[in-house]
């Protein structure tokens, strides 16, 4: 997302003239001979992107990132967009005068362009608010944008002009842009107690009766968004409306005083909705307990966009009311606030520029540099983030500032954990928790406890993870949160997934998603969607999993979160593999490995190597599989991840079985089973028992195979994972057929049901059942269905079995 700060002096709106056409970015218009040409939003964005980069070829990937940011589309969508653009510009593909195709690369704008000024008839006199994309393009909130401050000295005006240069690329027009300036105290709006905000109904100044509802609707939506954050108390809409008659005739200060006397309100928001240039605009005022006013404005495609914009703005201004301004410098503080709002919405690259400016303007300020380090960590710039965080840690200890000491430790611990340095990470978190407890700061205690819970989850210490997260919920309640936050719910979902409790995982993921969407937190919303993709994959809903994973990847790429992008690539690889698209899965896993290695994300490196080994095994490339799996085992051991290492040992045993080394495979699995049972039963034990059953079946021991499968069933039944249970029943049906007990096999297949519909292993069992009954035609039908479902997992031995079925059916 790109910010568009207002420049000093008169507003200049750049337009572009070429041939008979004129493109006006601010009003999102294309004119021909002065008359508007009807364009779909994405067609406009496509033309604008090519025009602003007219000196070069714009490749297809860049166009996807810009025009369809946060979405997964095919090249067919781009082709249709190009056709519509050429039709609007009266251009021809065979004889291009405006848009030229550069085959194998992308497109280039070739028409001569003359920059001109766009008319300012509709421009506001006091506030700068650049319209954004329509609501159909996934509206999200933008950051607060500083407006002219005539009292700024010349040096700050220079920096203000630098700020104007941030994000003026037409290819990333903001969906919503907010403008505002300080009146009164520019250092901030601290209070002596907790914040309690009243939002009054907004006046509908659009003249459109269909928007009469928006005054109340926007009031309620902003309240919901702020309440979900848990750190800003908001007076209920009913209480505000009941008091409205008693506010008539009072001035602004009088209204706040009456609300304070009756309900303990500390801050008041009121304003007016208007329509400018086809966009909705909200001008509003935030009044503090001393009567000081902060005037803001928000522009968006619809009421929902306005609500998220205002919610993001107010959550940053009021959410940390107990924390002093980032700096004594008003310009640095405003840049810092903008950066925080951007990071909340996931625009990490944009936030970096504002944090950097704030740090340069106020080099001694701690919090702008702290937020800069967090943003760099998310972008995968781990070395730079580590250096900065260690400097901040030393500085915080020297200052003996509890908040600084705690924040630096928590942030550095997360970075170290991703680098596989768990021991130092846990030491820092323990120190941070002690600091928070000693200073009676439950909000920060909760943050640290969630971090501890995440590390415990990845170590598969699920009991400890649940304990940390339960304590985090208690700490959040003590801090005033109404129910668990999205971070806690998402962390609980990851514990549930590891434990095999898919029902609870789904409930926690949906709860986390609702909270992050309510606050417009796109970055964390994408993280939760990644968890949902994992859940759908475990449920056997592979196409849903693939689509979710693809969307997650697109969002993380658009947000510039390289760490999350690498993880999302692994998730997409797993989803494609389940659909039988192994070579495509290999491409995604290879990309994940390359990205994770470049940013030093060691757990993701290990996971990508493991996936490459599994896919190579399924493709029959045993040499490559062994190389990748042994590399993954080494990587997991290097970061002291016992669970990850054990999973690689299981995959290596599967490889031994595929190579005909049944004795070696069984020996490894038995040792692994013994270790797992000693540590306490986990869902992973079920996987190992399933593999041991297959080895017993290979050895001609159906009774031994049945014993292992029934042992697995005992462990699986309490988990309530329908898919896992049905896989085990299908395995028992296969064992019964091997023992010649058709009736028992039919009974087990009936228990398996149809949840595994499309699973090639189940389809093979159905084929074997039909053959055992003597129905060769039905057996062929099931085997052919298995081949379709297996995709690239179909092996030579599978093809040989299909050939046998075909011969039997012809007889």
TrEMBL record:
Compositional bias (Basic and acidic residues): 790-802
Q: Cite the entry's keywords alphabetically.
A: DNA-binding, Membrane, Transmembrane, Transmembrane helix
Q: Which domain of life is it from?
A: Bacteria
Give start-end positions of Low complexity composition bias: 134-146
The record's InterPro entries line, in alphabetical order, gives: OmpR/PhoB-type_DNA-bd, Sig_transdc_resp-reg_C-effctor, TPR-like_helical_dom_sf, TPR_MalT, TPR_rpt, WH-like_DNA-bd_sf
**What is one Pfam family matched by this protein?**
Trans_reg_C
Task: State whether keyword Cytoplasm applies.
Answer: no
List the Gene Ontology MF annotations in alphabetical order. Answer: DNA binding
Transmembrane intervals = 163-184
Q: Enumerate the residue ranges of region (Disordered).
A: 124-154, 788-811
For this entry, the protein name equals Tetratricopeptide repeat protein
User: What PROSITE patterns does the database record attribute to this sequence?
Assistant: OMPR_PHOB (PS51755)
Every copy of the OmpR/PhoB-type domain together lies at 13-111
Specify the DNA-binding region ranges: 13-111
- Kindly list the biological process annotations in GO that this record carries: phosphorelay signal transduction system; regulation of DNA-templated transcription
């Amino acid at each position: 997302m790109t910010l568009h700060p207002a420049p000093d002096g008169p507003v200049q709106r750049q337009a572009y003239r070429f041939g008979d056409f004129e493109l006006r970015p601010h009003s999102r218009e294309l004119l021909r001979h002065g008359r508007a040409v009807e364009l779909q939003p994405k067609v406009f964005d496509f033309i604008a992107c090519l025009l602003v980069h007219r000196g070069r070829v714009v490749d297809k990937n860049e166009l996807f990132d810009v025009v369809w940011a946060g979405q997964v589309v095919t090249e067919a969508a781009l082709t249709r967009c190009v056709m519509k653009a050429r039709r609007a510009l009266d251009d021809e593909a065979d004889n291009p005068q405006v848009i030229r195709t550069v085959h194998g690369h992308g497109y280039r704008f070739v028409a001569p362009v003359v920059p001109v000024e766009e008319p300012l008839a509709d421009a506001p006199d006091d506030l700068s608010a650049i319209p954004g994309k329509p609501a159909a393009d996934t509206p999200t909130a933008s950051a607060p944008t500083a407006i002219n401050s005539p009292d700024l000295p010349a040096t700050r005006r220079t920096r203000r002009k630098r700020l104007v240069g941030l994000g003026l690329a037409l290819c990333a027009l903001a969906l919503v842009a907010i403008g505002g300036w300080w009146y009164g105290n520019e250092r901030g709006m601290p209070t002596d107690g907790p914040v309690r905000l009243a939002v009054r109904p907004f006046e509908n100044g659009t003249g459109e009766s269909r928007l009469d509802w928006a005054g109340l609707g926007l009031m309620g939506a902003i309240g919901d968004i702020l309440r979900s954050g848990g750190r800003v108390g908001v007076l209920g809409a009913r209480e505000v409306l009941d008091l409205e008659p008693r506010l008539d005739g009072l001035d602004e200060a009088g209204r706040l005083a009456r609300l304070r006397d009756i309900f303990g309100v500390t801050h008041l928001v009121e304003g007016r909705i208007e329509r400018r240039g086809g966009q909705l605009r909200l001008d509003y005022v935030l009044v503090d307990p001393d009567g000081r006013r902060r005037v803001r404005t928000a522009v968006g495609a619809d009421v929902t966009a306005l609500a998220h914009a205002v919610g993001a703005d107010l959550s940053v201004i009021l959410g940390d009311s107990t924390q002093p301004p980032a700096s004594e410098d008003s310009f640095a503080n405003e840049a810092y606030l903008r950066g925080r709002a951007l990071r909340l919405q996931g625009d990490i690259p944009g936030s970096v520029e504002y944090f950097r400016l704030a740090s340069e303007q106020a080099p001694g300020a701690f919090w702008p540099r702290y937020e800069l380090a967090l943003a760099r960590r998310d972008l995968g710039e781990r070395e730079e983030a580590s250096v900065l965080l260690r400097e901040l840690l030393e500085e915080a200890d020297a200052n003996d500032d509890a908040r600084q000491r705690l924040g630096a430790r928590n942030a550095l611990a997360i970075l170290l954990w991703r680098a596989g340095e768990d021991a130092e990470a846990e030491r820092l978190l323990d120190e941070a928790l002690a600091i928070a407890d000693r200073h009676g700061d439950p909000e920060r205690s909760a943050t640290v406890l969630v971090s501890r819970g995440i590390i415990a989850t990845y170590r598969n210490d699920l009991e400890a993870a649940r304990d940390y997260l339960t304590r985090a919920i208690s700490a959040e309640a003590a801090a005033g949160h109404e129910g668990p936050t999205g971070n806690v719910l998402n962390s609980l979902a990851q514990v549930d997934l590891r434990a095999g409790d898919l029902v609870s995982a789904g409930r926690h993921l949906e709860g986390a998603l609702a909270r992050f969407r309510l606050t417009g937190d796109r970055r964390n919303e994408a993280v939760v969607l990644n968890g949902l993709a994992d859940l759908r994959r475990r449920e056997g809903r592979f196409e849903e999993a693939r689509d979710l994973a693809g969307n997650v990847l697109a969002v993380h790429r658009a947000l510039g979160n390289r760490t999350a992008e690498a993880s999302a690539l692994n998730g997409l690889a797993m989803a494609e593999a389940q659909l039988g698209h192994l070579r495509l899965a290999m491409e995604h896993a290879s990309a994940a490995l390359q990205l994770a290695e470049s940013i030093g994300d060691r757990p993701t490196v290990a996971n990508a190597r493991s996936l490459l080994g599994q896919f190579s095994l399924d493709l029959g490339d045993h040499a490559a599989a062994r190389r990748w799996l042994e590399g993954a085992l080494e990587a997991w051991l290097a970061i002291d991840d016992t669970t990850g290492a054990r999973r690689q040992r299981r995959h290596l045993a599967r490889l031994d079985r595929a190579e005909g080394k049944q004795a070696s495979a069984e020996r490894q699995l038995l040792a692994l089973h013994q270790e797992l049972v000693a540590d306490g039963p986990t869902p992973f034990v079920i996987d190992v028992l399933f593999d041991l059953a297959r080895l017993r079946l290979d050895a001609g021991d159906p009774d031994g195979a049945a014993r292992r499968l029934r042992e697995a069933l005992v462990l699986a039944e309490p988990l309530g994972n329908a898919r896992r249970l049905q896989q085990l029943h299908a395995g028992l049906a296969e064992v019964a057929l091997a023992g010649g007990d058709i009736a028992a096999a039919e009974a087990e297949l009936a228990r398996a049901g149809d949840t595994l519909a499309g699973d090639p292993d189940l389809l093979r069992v159905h084929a074997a059942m039909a053959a055992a009954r003597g129905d060769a035609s039905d057996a062929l039908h099931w085997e052919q269905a298995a081949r379709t479902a297996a995709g690239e997992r179909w092996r030579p031995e599978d093809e040989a079995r299909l050939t046998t079925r075909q011969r039997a059916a012809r007889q």
